[in-house]
């Protein structure tokens, strides 16, 4: 039977938690990064599954700036992909960890790439970076009937900061045209303000103004240069969700495949994967398929 210690901590930058086997020696580390409007808990179930299958590893789940428990930490400067990546680099430095694997979903995927761009030398060799359903450059909006993060952030900014019912928020989002699944996911960011009170009230845990800045940076940040000149010993893996076609243009796929050939010649690695039967929420839509694809990164330890 496996037992895990889940440690919650904070430094001046971000909040984080470990999922690890408490009985073993100091293990290799994987860092898991959530997407915009998410939090580290999005990865909880999946990380526990990884920890059970690969008990020699530890898994560091981070609340990025303005999200989850990190939203209460006041930040100076711009809220960008680069600043979020620097937060994580500072965190692993303070924890004296050298990640062997960095997994980022959506916005978190660009954060992972920015970590490599900003601090190639401190990262362990080899290191595998997984960019889940995100491209290094232009962010393309969804088609009609799909959920648009920029519009979601804009609509959330019109809602009160404190509400009496999660269901009312879900209904408001659905009336606005967002899917029930996205609406249910968004209200996981609501927490009860006065537990035990006769009338429940809920408030948002995120910093929505900061998140709006971060999403704008996500749209504007271009990390193709890093992908097309991957540092030696770094392996960048892109995963495209089969049903998330709007986020991928033919030119994106062509550039990644061209980068695969260049990286192989230069001692690095770039690889493209496709996750079948999944939309953008890869770890919820097809966790078995995602687990199978990611597993080879954890083998051999």
TrEMBL record:
This is AB hydrolase-1 domain-containing protein. Gene3D superfamilies: alpha/beta hydrolase. InterPro entries: AB_hydrolase_1, AB_hydrolase_fold, Serine_prot/Carboxylest_S33. It comes from Nyssa sinensis. Residues 31-291 form the AB hydrolase-1 domain. GO terms for molecular function: hydrolase activity. Belongs to the peptidase S33 family. Keywords: Hydrolase. Transmembrane segments: none annotated.
